[in-house]
UniProtKB/TrEMBL annotation:
Domain Dicarboxylate carrier MatC N-terminal: 1-149
Gly residues bias (residue ranges): 224-242
Lineage: Bacteria, Bacillati, Actinomycetota, Actinomycetes, Kitasatosporales
Keyword set, alphabetical order: Membrane, Transmembrane, Transmembrane helix
Annotated spans, Disordered: 208-275
Chain segments annotated as transmembrane: 47-70, 91-108, 114-132, 144-164, 176-195, 286-317, 329-346, 367-394, 406-438, 450-474
Annotated organism of origin: Streptomyces ambofaciens (strain ATCC 23877 / 3486 / DSM 40053 / JCM 4204 / NBRC 12836 / NRRL B-2516)
Any one Pfam family match given in the protein's UniProt record, by short name: MatC_N
Protein name per the record: Putative carrier protein (Membrane protein)
Keyword Ubl conjugation: no
Biased amino acid composition, Low complexity: 243-260
Length: 475
């Protein structure tokens, strides 16, 4: 048995054990990386740790730390209140506002994870308060980021168009952008209908005080469009969180009017029905969030390091508000994501991904090779860098694109769509940010929801992209 095949089988075993035994998948993946890297790939510790996603580790810790402080001092309450007023109480519009906001950020040049890191915590705090499915809100944010991700001036668009030009392939910047925009817009529409959007419309307008509580944990975080509710946090499992107990009876089905529950004294709204006031700590936190946006988009600074620095400043100025924030960092999610991506790094180091891609590229039937490359791009991108995968797969497609039987423009667009829509996977950067940013959720349940949805996207979207973009022979 080849080393590459062994490494793939070990990955399957990791998934099976994590699913059936409720063991943190990240811990399993670290053990698998050590075993496969040492015994099969002949890597030393440095070679194994070369795949550790240090930048993603800092992003996850930094962003969740900063927004834990924002939740502790009531800043997210104020933002949610302001968002309701902005859409005149039409809660159903908020998922689309978040979709458009992240799309606009990536279209003008923000890296997709940076846009998601900025928008997701506020979006999911809103979802929790107003009994909106966190799966709906989180996926709307991610698909919004991908909708704008291939504009001609975006990071992803510039990289892919540069690869196409370097390989001497015909390209169309507009086709690439529109393919991603339309695909993600259609998916967002389907998600909105399936996960409670119609009931949100039926709810009509609400006042900012109509949420389940003034805090961020009112609505049951496990709700879905089908009306199911979560069963409480679990201490173990792939994405389990060690969060504290929650008040019983707060769960409400997505799309239904949230019931009145007790308001925690430290989170009660202030003022005469006007919502939370802008106390000094909240003003400073809002300025910190604005600074994060400016630093990331305007000066191309690292989102994680910037967020940690801002969180430290706020913690120093208001230690009482920030005392619990470090404990609220999504450490189990950090372990999960970093472990899995470290194992994926071992796969890349030992050539497993290249081995699979070259095997597909050698198939003599161009249309079959095209759909298999789309599936490889989707599957691998669910665990690794989307742009990195496209950078590897587009050159692999050059030989059969040169035969003229497959349109290069359609093939590149299909690869781009297949490799990015799967970023809703909890193992990708964007999916991990959504998982980490959701306040007071049953993280194990939310993790499984994201994993199932990501699996559906991997199974369905590449085939549809191939059928719509490749089979007609565009370009």
């Amino acid at each position: 048995m080849s080393p590459e095949l062994i490494s793939i089988l070990v990955l399957v075993v990791v998934f099976v054990i994590a699913t059936t035994r409720s063991v943190n998948m990240g811990a399993l993946a670290f053990a698998a990386a050590f075993g496969v890297g040492t015994l099969v790939a002949d890597l030393d510790a440095d070679g194994i740790f070369a795949g550790f996603p240090g930048d993603l580790f800092v992003v996850l810790v930094g962003v969740t730390y900063l927004f834990a402080i924002a939740r502790a001092n009531g800043t997210t309450d104020w933002l949610v209140h302001a968002a309701v007023r902005m859409v005149r109480g039409r809660v159903a519009l908020i998922p689309w506002v978040m979709f458009a906001l992240t799309g606009a950020l990536t279209a003008i040049g923000a890296v997709s994870p940076a846009a998601v890191a900025i928008v997701a915590p506020v979006a999911l705090s809103f979802a929790t308060r107003y009994a909106i499915s966190p799966l709906l809100m989180g996926t709307m944010v991610v698909h919004g980021a991908q909708a704008g991700g291939f504009s001609p001036i975006s990071i992803y668009g510039s990289i892919v168009n540069g690869i196409v030009e370097r390989e001497g392939l015909p390209g169309s910047e507009v086709t690439l952008f529109l393919a991603s925009l339309i695909a993600n817009l259609v998916i967002a529409g389907v998600l909105f209908v399936l996960f409670g959007g119609r009931k949100l419309w039926a709810r009509g307008a609400v006042s900012p005080q109509d949420g389940g509580t003034a805090g961020d944990g009112a609505a049951d975080e496990g709700t879905t469009g089908s009306g199911t509710t979560g069963s409480g946090t679990g201490p173990s499992g792939a994405g389990a969180s060690g969060s504290g107990p929650r008040s019983a009876g707060t769960g409400t089905a997505a799309g239904t009017a949230p019931s009145a529950v007790a308001v925690r004294p430290d989170r009660a709204p202030e003022g005469d029905g006007a919502g939370p006031r802008l106390a000094p700590a909240r003003v400073a936190t809002l300025l910190a969030l604005v600074a994060l946006v400016v630093a990331v988009l305007g000066f191309d600074l690292d989102a994680g390091l910037t967020a940690v620095s801002l969180a430290v400043v706020l913690s120093t100025a208001w230690p009482d508000d920030s005392r619990r924030a470090v404990g609220e960092i999504a450490w189990s999610t950090v372990l999960l994501i970093c472990g899995v991506l470290t194992y994926v790094g071992v796969l890349e180091e030992m050539g497993t991904i290249t081995w699979a891609g070259e095997g597909v590229g050698g198939i003599g039937v161009p249309l079959l090779a095209a759909v298999l490359l789309c599936y490889i791009g989707a599957l691998v991108s669910a665990f690794a860098s989307s742009v990195g995968i496209m950078g590897a797969l587009i050159p692999l497609a050059v030989p059969f694109l040169a035969q003229g039987e497959i349109g290069a423009v359609g093939m590149v667009a299909a690869l781009a769509v297949s490799a990015t829509v799967v970023d809703v996977s909890p193992f990708s950067t964007n999916g991990a940010l959504v998982l980490a940013a959701a306040p007071d959720v049953d993280r194990e349940r939310f993790f499984r929801q994201l994993m199932v949805y990501g699996g559906i996207v991997v199974a369905v979207v590449p085939a549809l992209a191939w059928l719509v973009l490749v089979v007609p022979g565009f370009g």
